[in-house]
Amino acid sequence: MPRLIIDEREIEVPPGTKVIDAAERLGILIPRFCYHEGLGAVGACRMCAVQFVEGPVKGLQMSCMVDAQDGMVVSTSHEEAVEFRRFIIECLMLNHPHDCPVCDEGGQCLLQDETVSGGHGLRRYQGKKRTYRDQYLGELIAHEMNRCIHCYRCSRFYQEFSGYRDLGPLQIANRVFYGRFKDGPLESPFSGNLVDICPTGVYTDKPSRYKARRWDLQRTPSVCIHCSLGCNTVANARYREVVRVEARFSGEVNGHFICDRGRFGFPYTNLPGRPRTARTAGGECSQGEAVAAAAEKLREISSTFGPQAVACFGSSRNSLETQCMLKRICRLQGWQVPGFFVDPALERRVRAAVSLLDASAGVSMREVERADCVVAAGVDPVNEAPMLALAMRQAFRRGAEILVADPRPIFLPFPFIHVPVSMERMDSFLEGLARLAGESSDGTGVREADLLSQIVQNGGLASSDLPLPVSFCRALFGSQNPVVLCGTECVRESTLPAAAALARDLRKGRDRAGLLYVLPGANAFGAGLLNSQGHPGFSRLLESVESGSVRALIVTESDPLNDFCHRDRLLGTLGKLDLLVVMDFLDSETARMAHVFLPTTTHFESGSCFVNHEGRLQYAEAVHHGGIPIEQAGGGSHPPRVYRGDIPGEGPKAAWVILAELGRTLGIPDRDLLGLGPWSLIGEEIPSLKRLEGTVFPPEGIRILSDGDPVQWVQGPEARDGEDDRGAVPPGDFFEILLTHWTFGTEELSSRSGPLQKVEKEPYGMMHSDDARVLGFSEGDRIVLSLEGGQIRFRLSVADRMGRGVLVLPRHRKLAWRNIPEMPCFVPRDRIRREDS
Amino acid sequence: MKSLVEAAKALAEGFATTFNHLFRRPVTEEYPEVHRVLPARTRARIVLTLDPDGEERCVACYLCSAVCPVSCISMQSAEKEDGRRYASWFRINFARCIYCGLCEEACPTSAIQLTPYFETCERDILRLVYEKEDLLVQHQGKDKEYNFYKVAGVVTRLAGKGEHAREEKPVNVKTNLP
Amino acid sequence: MLSDALKETLRGKIAQGEHPREHAVDVMLEIQKRCGYMSDEAMEEAATLLGMSPLELEELATFYDHIYREPVGKYVIRVCDSAVCWMHGHLSVVDHLTSLLGIGMGETTPDGLFTVLPVCCLGYCDRAPAMMINQRIFGQLTPEKIDRVIRRLREEASFDEAE
What is the CATH number of the domain that holds A60? Predict the structure, then answer.
């Protein structure tokens, strides 16, 4: 461990640490532009020069390029270094335009800060400034090249770190330009990070253009809730409006970056149509009146039909507090056990995932980055959990072999092996890999021909589908730290234990083999924890409503009409209810059907806990108090000229608080509800979390799967109860429909974001080119799919690298996927035809 | 006797001074009948000026509101179709303003200026909250010359890339010249 | 844009390397030999052949001086402006050339025959000042020699055209 002295203070750092990082550990921030912890050092800007007074390196050197070594004595404030940095900043400012007042970076600009701290106040250079023409980079990022200081951070992030290839450095010397080949939207779904890493205002955030200065923003640590990864963010609000979301560093979760869905997905919380007042059948009313009306009706229903006539329904976007309060009230009132997923099979898959993860297997994204071999089964990272794709890319950059087994066409920003195994055969494919891994841990005993034939057999593949599986198997056997990734959205229930078994088998003879399930929703893990066997499943619930045994339904922050496949049936069923209570912050279709509607706050307005895919409990702090944004209150002009003591539109409360009020009105003492406080509430409902009570929340969250304390969270995946064994492919010539998520346009919250609606693609369906040829279809054809529920029309796109016999459709609002009666769905070929023009 | 004479003399002198002043021109001015012309740099009522082209100078950069020690300035920045940044609304609460002039000092475009006009009393305090239309004036104030968008380097209707003061022509990325 | 025959040649060239992108510069020089310069369409087609994104190829094309992204004349005159040539009257060579052709540095004559570009060192320092026209180098330049060369090239061009 090298020991060195920086500015007369001694520090010991791990070998390989750069001097600039060693200084940062002492709290000395050496000026820098090109150096970024996430991107590494290139020594391009010359700003971090320091004087090496004693030791193996002498003289003026760039602190980002020198490894800390024993005996170094470094001075950051040496006269020569200070003068050098002053000179560099003056040179960097030669061509910088005079536009700070109209630049959004102003106030959070590294160049501004360093110019001031470098002592460069007066411009001595009187020559002409170099200028550039800017490019149109899409609806998310604004480009202003005049401001560039050529630190190469953008192209290093864009090309090296994230693996996209449409933005980079052009030209040479004084004319270096960062941009695209031609104007056009950036292809990377991580492009928003350019805004964060650019040390000046070349790339600025377009949706929040000119909205606010950094110093005027209310900023709090938050958590992204647009997928199950739980990336750490900073929420920025001003004038009762969330203005911007930025990445927050988290060593274990997302590192320095976030995806564009997380960055630009927040506008649902500011929408003008967001409901802010409670409603009953009699029209708008106060929150208290609506709660009283709901309570009265609930009391009436449970006294007439019994408490089991009341059912509750949450979702995977509920905060953990809401989920726990919902379950608590149901238990105390004797109502039906709440459910969280409209698809019973998905519910079981989530439950299985939660029970199969334990501390020795579950891995964070950081650990995925460090894996040396990755097997992904039934998961499409860029579309389902974008940051996972970046984590996988970092593993690839460190030399990991990566295999994705999935019938869908998969794109990842790095080379990988795609094996288009059908969902049906996925388990046996994984079992095959596991068996092979078990047989030979060093790979030497494996005969290649055997391997190939076994995998082909297990995967039900044609051998032409298998590019390089043998080399992959060798890499898998030779790996020290393999990781198995598994999706939950499209896979069969049996795939989850198969993935866990593969991870378990890989762990034999190794220190570690990780397992990561991508879950459907920000708090799907919480839903899985709370979901005990008492819940009948959503289809059973609908049957009970149809038969009249369930009379009232309480829906908290959930929109079954958005998620459920068989839309017409659900509409009819909800219409039969005596009482439909909906609490939500979205103006959802289900909310519009409610007899009693109660507006709730988003996680930006009331802090909430979410448990991510690896069981990390993270707290998103409230960033503002809610209310109608000033921009809307003023109609674009100045705020209304009135005196008032309250906040307009501050009616909504957190869903769990409203639930507690409902419970109190129904006669539950307050000490059993809000009186518990959030920790006790969570501990009461999830006994295994009782040990966390009173814990101070660490910034990186609490990993609730702890080592040496194997907790059986829930019962293992329960035996199939007859209703659900629909995973088997029916005999005959059928297409399996896979309903998938897209990075933009399908996730419930971010699909309401105006900026993201501008970048999302028009929905299309995908099938294998061979299948299309048999059916006589070609790329771009308009296709009609006739189902019992109705027709689905879409444009066809064909691909070679995907499974045969599958039709992939996005859950896009512009595509009538809700006409699918239930999932999984198999359609005979004759139901798919080309639309006659 | 002597003291009596001295007392009478002092009295007479005093009265003489008073009497003399009856015929002098007064040095005080009768406010509000008489309005004294104050120096141009007197700090009172704040205005928003126009640039020499007659366009709003304010680019809503928020520097004045940041520097204001009593937080009496608030605004919202927005973008015009031609790329100009401007204030969609701009509000100064004169009930709070202490006329320190820091906003004028911070303003990078000479938009916000303090004028000598100080008679802003109102009976209704809400009328001391001035909106943008109340603050805008149709002249350049003390700075007749400055036109920020002619030097800023950002594209507006006024100038494109390379057309501002002291700018090279834009770099041609495809140029054959080394 | 690129002819099928040219594409076939390029594919053959690319196939020789371990990684297709090894031949990126060669492919661009080959296209330039046939088409004069790298147009946007040529860039896109070459990028597809090389398995690169157009931007990645553009990074190379704009970095290297001898790959032309803007149209050039039939004869590209590269005048050496290195120190030795400069001492031996590089400026007067440039002045003479530009007044003779009636164009500035980096420009092409209206008849599409000549483009004048600077180059830094042709390795002809012993015969300075020097210039290179397409692949041929001329040293010890004098106004008369330049006139002669240009006249010859004009004749050659009109001969080519007539044929």
Answer: 3.10.20.740
Q: pTM of the predicted model, to two decimals?
A: 0.92
Extract the tokens encoding A837. Answer: 């023009």
**Which chain A residue's Cα is nearest to C59?**
A170
The residue of chain C with its CA nearest to that of B178 is: C65
**A283 in B contact zone (CB under 8 Å):** no
B108–A100 C-beta distance less than 8 A: yes
Question: How many domains is chain A built from?
Answer: 5
SS (H, E, C) A279-315: EECCEEECHHHHHHHHHHHHHHHHHHHCHHHEEEECC
- Per-residue tokens: A727: 């995973």
Residues of C in contact with A182 (CB under 8 A): 40, 54
Question: For the residues A224-243, what does the mean pLDDT come to?
Answer: 96
- Rounded to a whole number of angstroms, the distance from the CA of C163 to the nearest CA of chain B is 30
Name the residue type at position A328: R
CB contact under 8 A, B168 and A106: no
Residue A106 lies in a domain: no
Contact with chain B for residue A133, Cβ under 8 A: yes
Please answer yes or no on whether C53 and A181 come within 8 Å at the CB atom: yes
**Cα separation, A129 vs A33, whole angstroms:** 21
State the chains in contact with C (3 or more Cβ–Cβ pairs under 8 Å). Answer: A, B
- In this complex, do C69 and B178 lie within 8 Å of one another by their Cβ atoms? no
Residue A665: CB atoms within 10 Å: 17
Half-sphere exposure of B17 (CA within 13 A, CB side): 5
pLDDT of B91 over the 60 cut: yes
> How many Å apart are CA A323 and CA A339, to the nearest integer?
10
| Dihedral, CA of residue A266, residue A267, residue A273 and residue A275, to nearest 10 | 30
Residue range(s) defining the domain that contains residue A742: 734-834
Is B173's CB within 8 Å of A631's CB? no
3-state secondary structure of A478: helix
Give me the CATH code for the B46-166 domain, please. 3.30.70.3270
> Same domain, yes or no, for A319 and A426?
no
Is a pLDDT exceeding 50 seen at residue A719? Answer: no
d(CA A543, CA A549): 9
CB B171 to CB A175 under 8 A?
yes
The answer to whether the CB atoms of B177 and C106 lie below 8 A apart is yes
From first to last of the 163 residues of chain C, give the pLDDT tens digit. 789 999 999 999 999 988 999 999 999 999 999 999 999 999 999 999 999 999 999 999 999 999 999 999 999 999 999 999 999 999 999 999 999 999 999 999 999 999 999 999 999 999 989 999 998 999 999 999 999 999 999 999 888 888 7
Closest to A587 (Cα-Cα) out of A328, A276, A799, A284: A276
A472 and A593, same domain (yes or no): no
- Whether the CB of A411 is below 8 Å from some CB of chain C: the reply is no
ipTM of the complex model: 0.93
Nearest CB partner across the interface for A165, out of C44, C56, C63: C56
